[in-house]
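User: Hi! I'm a student and our assignment asks us to look at how structure tokens line up with a sequence. Could you show me two examples?

Assistant: Happy to help. In each example below, the sequence comes first and the structure tokens follow. Example one:
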Amino acid sequence: MKIASPKDKNLTQEFEKILRKDWGRLMAALTKQLNSLQLAEDALQEACIAAFDKWSQIGLPESPQGWLLRVAHRKALNMIRSEIRSAQREKSSFSFREIFAKENSEDIPDERLRLIFTCCHPALDIKSRVALTLRVVCGISTFDIAKLFLDSESTMGQRLSRAKSKITKARIPFSIPDPSQWYDRMQAVLTTIYLVFTSGYINKMDSFEPSPSSGSFNTDLCTEAIFLTNILLNLSPNDPEVEGALALMLLTDSRRKARMNHRGETVPPSEQNRNLWDKHKLERGKEILEIALKRKKIGPFQIKAAISACQMADPLPDWQQILELYTILYTMEPTSIIRLNQAVALSESGRAIYARKILCELEQELKNYQPFYAAKASILSHLEEWEQSILAYQKAIDLASWQSDRLYLLNQLKFIETKK
């Protein structure tokens, strides 16, 4: 049975949907079968090219996923045989019989959790983890990942190759961690996925061009990170930190359309037009957060999600609650950035004089960090120290990476200058 005609103009769209849904699952199944990320990726890419050519003529098969898996197995087998013939390997660790035995199976095992843990292994540097997850699990092309990191395609290709090689040489297992390692390994996975999210949200590198033959398709990184976290939640249900991470992304992403005004200026949550918030994402984020907190196993992602929810409280942010949450978070992640946010919450809850003391502690460490000067300017304005606030705003403007932030800070500066 065919579900699309040879001339179906929606073939490309249907093909992209298949890859969007099943790329990671196919990669995971092939990686487990072949014991090689690189071979699995090469074989699946070859299968995608063959599929797009074949399906353009005959339409989609009844089971496109099964078709891709069978053809990828054949492609992998041919690659192994070719390497053996060319004396590039003295022996193969792959079982030809096992590959043939699986060849006709339409049941694709879901090994994506193993794949995600492998790509996010702590032995890899964080940039490689993010890049490898985007390429292997999501199917985003090397070209598009390079754009995200402002690298050339060849440089990113080399990074991905080194990461795959390290997985092989270090014998990083394609497996789910033991219970004793679960929490730390899951935190590494969630941190990697959250970096994917923030890259899309902050860097505004959202849209990619489709390229079906390479396994890349239209997407944005925020949606991709939420998609990955949903996969994690389906594969590892009842994990409160996975729920917390998903809630955090949904709550943050619900404000996406309101984060800049018509003049292109950044708008903080307390000043945003709430009618522009995505109500569905907002409510779902709150519901998931509530479920996570009821499990009584509090972790950093749950706290961050709770902070985001408090920032969106009606009619104004609940700064006292935000302060208490940052105090808890600081015990879990005692970083200077969290301490700075704690100072902002102190100031907004009416204790700017104590917030200034924290600024003094952090000034040397964060002397080149733009949000430090934006926070300093705001805190000093609460203390009516106008001249020092102006200097801090000027420094924040000089360090601003994004025009939207710069425009917002310029407006704040103009307002403070009227107070002199």
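Example two works the same way, sequence first and then tokens:
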Amino acid sequence: MEAVPQVNVSRTKFENPVKCIFDSQGVQEFQHSVAIERLKYFLLRYAQMVNRQRIERGPCGIEVVNGFVGLLQRLSQLVDETPALPGPRRFGNLACRDWHHKFESSLSQLWQELLPKEYHEAIPELNYYLGNSFGSSTRLDYGTGHELSFLAVVGALDMLGLWTSEFSGKEVLLIFDTYYQLVRKLIITYTLEPAGSHGVWGLDDHFHIAYIHGSSQWSNDPNAPMVPRDITNRTMVEKFADTNLYCQAISFIYQVKSGPFAENSSMLYDIATTVHTWSKVHSGLLKMYYIEVLSKFPVIQHFWFGAGLYPWINAKTGQKLPIYENIETKSEMFTPISITTAAPTISMGHQPGQSIPHTKLAHGRYSPVRGLMAPPSTVPTNSYSKMRNSMRNDRP
């Protein structure tokens, strides 16, 4: 694999990220950008690094990794300090906005404490990507676009050279494991909606990279303790959930959804029962990610672009890519995260959040635009069908 792209802080200009994707034309331009090349690079890099590795919790030998993990753990403590508001609420608990406000207000300071002073110029861009890694305080949802933003943060620190040459799959798993623990806590505590879910025909209501990395952990490993079909066995899934990201994600489904796994997670069940090796699962999930996340406007429109880390630049020519903007779309833009943009102040309640209802996750999704429940698709999307066939047919 090629060397990690390097971003020299002293020679690089950093800017607050801005929205550049307003329609399908913008998505097409994105496919030629430096940003997508870097995102794909780090997705593949970390997937390769975690191969035949298991999650090991606790401090590692790299100080900045421990510091970053500590930052995520502090955000988890902040959830405990910001309990859900009392009483039932169907579509997200408003206390989540209070959590976001506290988090965003202290974000720059957290980076300043973590990073050496010479890296502080990059904080405006780091703020945006980390700030958008935990769901939307506006829509009270979480999905694959937020997960992508976290990948961007980890890759950004890699480009800045902060992970050091000792950075390995062990540290990658430590970081992502801590992140997913926090996100699952946010989802359950504040009953966050799935962002852009495909319903029962999607891979997962919230995650995709977790499955890519988790399947890579066991790819081409003759000593892998499970085969794909074993994920239908909840006991086995729970046994390895602490050491494998794929099992973690499946375990979360068993936790928050009721009913047969084959019905509430038909895509994952289909993969488990028709794809026989982890290497095929992994390669198919990568292809699916390129199509269903990196090439889909509803997801990628929320990924914004700075000047240093993930620029809106043509990867071949080095020139700025065109921006196709229209008045209607511009009026719907979301304000980027900023410590000067405070979320509404929400009074704190004293009761913990309730578990996510089965109907919310399995029977449909809430549309913020229409304000009503949209039924799940009755058939899988064409691209998902192609990916399933690809998993079955690819060689190990």
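Here is something you could point out in your write-up. The CA atoms of residues 97 and 156 lie 26 Å apart.
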